[in-house]
Amino acid sequence: MASDKKSGKSAKSTKSTTEILSEFQMLRNEQRAMANKLSEMEMGLNEHKTVIDTLKNVDPKRKCYRMTGGVLCECIVEDVMPALVTNKEQLIKVIDNLNEQLTKKGIEINEFKEKHNITIQHDMQQPQR
């Protein structure tokens, strides 16, 4: 029983190169997914800003259409504007949160690279002439 604990500890502390690289690749994939989600959210925020700016100059009683859960609903501008502004504010909060997470993930990746002495090939390559 005691020998099982010792071998388990040493196996955890010494990871193989393959395990280290797969963990590093997983971290980079997580960072890439966060960056893609952030980009998607920023596009949504820009769309909200454009719609809000457009509807500011429109008669509040005018008909407009809003996509809700995949269904196009007919509304009036004064009913839609508060929801758009609220959604925009929530998107800003989510984007700020994602930016913080992306920064933390970048720091985590850099620390992992330093800890395991990982160098990326394209970082090492110099232009050849």
From TrEMBL:
* Complexes and interactors: Heterohexamer of two PFD-alpha type and four PFD-beta type subunits.
Q: Which GO terms describe its biological process?
A: protein folding
The protein's GO terms of the molecular function aspect are:
unfolded protein binding
What is this protein's function? Binds specifically to cytosolic chaperonin (c-CPN) and transfers target proteins to it. Binds to nascent polypeptide chain and promotes folding in an environment in which there are many competing pathways for nonnative proteins.
What family does the Swiss-Prot or TrEMBL record give for this protein?
Belongs to the prefoldin subunit beta family.
The protein here is known as: Prefoldin subunit 2
Extent of the signal sequence = none
Gene this protein is translated from:
LOC108631370
What's in the GO CC field? prefoldin complex
